[in-house]
């Protein structure tokens, strides 16, 4: 029920969202630690996360898998492999797949709240305006099919990215 799902954008750190049931990792194919979001999530979750990820890897662009959150203050982590911009094609569709697969997986896990970083906009080179439009369309298009999710939060590292995502999602504040 789309009118029952709240969408919001905040500026902050994806590893510091204790009120969310789950957060999304902008992962690498091997589901190992790395830079950016993946590094921050693995550092905060601890070595048990890498152990839990091993049997699930490798994943493909657009795919989403779930693990426990270990040392993170959430129940679960949903790991998505975003596309490398203009190398994994079609990049827009693969990025949309990440958002949609993550939302459907969270809902199938009966999670009520999920936080996303701006997948693919760091090391993978996606322009933030384009990524925000793709994310907004992808999120809006699956909300009506979800049963358990009540809150979707975009967590952006920079204030500028927060403004871009807020506008794309049609959030006035
Ligand atoms: N919380 C929220 N957003 C963050 C955080 C954080 N703690 N840290 C960075 N960002 P990236 P990608 C922002 O590179 O483009 C990794 O090395 C960041 O400013 O984490 O999907 C993996 O191992 C940017 O806007 O993800 C992969 O190999 C956005 O999150 C590869 O990078 C995504 O940046 C994945 O690249």
UniProtKB/TrEMBL annotation:
Provide the Macro domain boundaries: 1-173
InterPro entries xrefs? Macro_dom, Macro_dom-like
Q: Which SMART domains match?
A: A1pp
The identity of this protein, by name, is: Macro domain-containing protein
